[in-house]
Design goal:
Length: 86
């Protein structure tokens, strides 16, 4: 097994994926390799981390206070642009 194929899932048509009522063991060429499953789980964990991090920041700081740095930086940029122009 090559390194690239270890991280790729099996290729199957949509018809094979939709209704598969297996009554026997899935063939080896149709199984997902362990490294490919690990990458999918790592991606899911990363997405959940960023959702929970944003939720935690919103809970701790409060969403109106989270907007203060955004408004301060935009007002600072506009005032520096005004001072350069005039």
């Amino acid at each position: 097994m090559s390194l690239r194929s270890a991280f790729r899932g099996p290729e199957a048509s949509l018809d094979e994926q939709i209704e598969s009522y297996s009554v026997e063991r899935v063939p080896d060429d149709r199984r997902w390799p362990i490294p490919a499953i690990s990458l999918v789980l790592l991606g899911n964990a990363t997405a959940m981390f960023f959702f929970s991090f944003g939720a935690q920041q919103t809970f701790l700081v409060g969403w109106p206070k989270m907007l203060i740095p955004i408004s301060d930086s935009s007002s600072a940029q506009s005032s520096s642009a005004r001072s350069r122009c005039g």
